Amino acid sequence: MVKVAHSILANPREAADELAAQLGDVKPKALLCFSSTVQEPHELLRQLHHHYREATIAGGTTAGEIVSGKMFKGGVVAMALEADVVDRCAAVVIEDLGPGMDLDAAFESLERHLGEPLDEADPDTTVGIVVIDGMSGAEEKLIEAIGNRTDIPFIGGSAGDDRKFQKTKVFLGRNVHEGAALLMLLKVPRGYEIVKTQSFENTGIVLEATEVDEPSRKIISLNRRPAVYAYAEAVGAIPDAIGDSFMTNPLARLVGGEPFIRSPQRIEGTAIKFFCAVRKGEKLAVMRATDIITDTKAAVARGIADAGGARGIVDFHCILRALELESKGLAQDYGAIFKDVPTVGFCTYGEAWTTHINQTSTMLLFK
Length: 367
Description:
Layout: E1 2-7, H1 12-23, E2 30-35, H2 41-51, E3 56-61, E4 65-67, E5 70-72, E6 76-81, E7 88-94, H3 103-114, E8 126-132, H4 139-149, E9 154-158, E10 169-172, E11 175-178, E12 181-187, E13 192-197, E14 200-213, E15 218-222, E16 225-226, H5 227-235, E17 251-255, E18 258-262, E19 264-268, E20 271-274, E21 283-289, H6 292-307, E22 312-318, H7 319-327, H8 331-336, E23 343-348, E24 351-353, E25 356-357, E26 361-366
Parallel strand pairs: 2-3, 8-9, 22-23
Antiparallel strand pairs: 1-6, 2-6, 3-10, 4-5, 4-23, 7-12, 8-12, 9-24, 10-11, 13-26, 14-15, 14-21, 15-16, 15-20, 17-18, 17-21, 19-20, 22-26, 24-25
């Protein structure tokens, strides 16, 4: 069984008690918990552990929360996954995301707790979740390292902090970690489906990143011209006003025609700083915004059909998408997409699926 709960109570003990009351007498193998910065996380986790001592409790802080039928801010959401959905799980926190990052030790711990080597695990019934410190700037390095280490898919997002952009945290057990990443593996006997959706279409215009500062996520030149001028021409904007086009005209790396969005953040001189890194020589498609509600409804419907039904959904939903929905008064229309399926999620500072991406929702559907 999959059950979900939410609370907007600020007191962490009261919030945990309300979650437990909504979840009832479940006995979860795993309990996913995504919380705003309003609820003090150490006490919240301590209280959840009191209610669910046998569960692996994992999650992180948010920039907005999603639960079946609604979106909100300043609360906490939880998803209980019982043994008929998840029969085994393992989780580990990587404390050092810098040069000393030790993914081998992390995967050895996961394999030990999962009870089998990952190269022997069935990718149709084994899936990973990753939640990474959203202020670390280490998403590309970590997600690429995971992909080099295993064929098991990992899906997730970057933790938030209610749009303060100061400190984000990940949770495991009763512990709270900063500057870290959570890796979680789930054995799901009935399988799963992954949905990635972004609301953009390809304009057909291609720009090459001819000079970049990859560590700072900055494109210095496009098509051998200063990035600001090349981008302005591509989107039909005045160079001084290209910031107005950033939300509606991001760039994308195309893989087999599938877009992986790279969103511009701000102008720095004649360079453009992005929310995720771009490599020198990458060919980037200029994208044009479409409708988030229509596109997400269609993507979720396809995912559920492909899965033969969904018993639960975890939605890692970009903060930039959330901001657009709020500006148009459509946040609750987005939440309503999930009203008929037990769903939790959070607004992220970046999304993860095979790479680090922006302005996307990455979703895990449990069959």
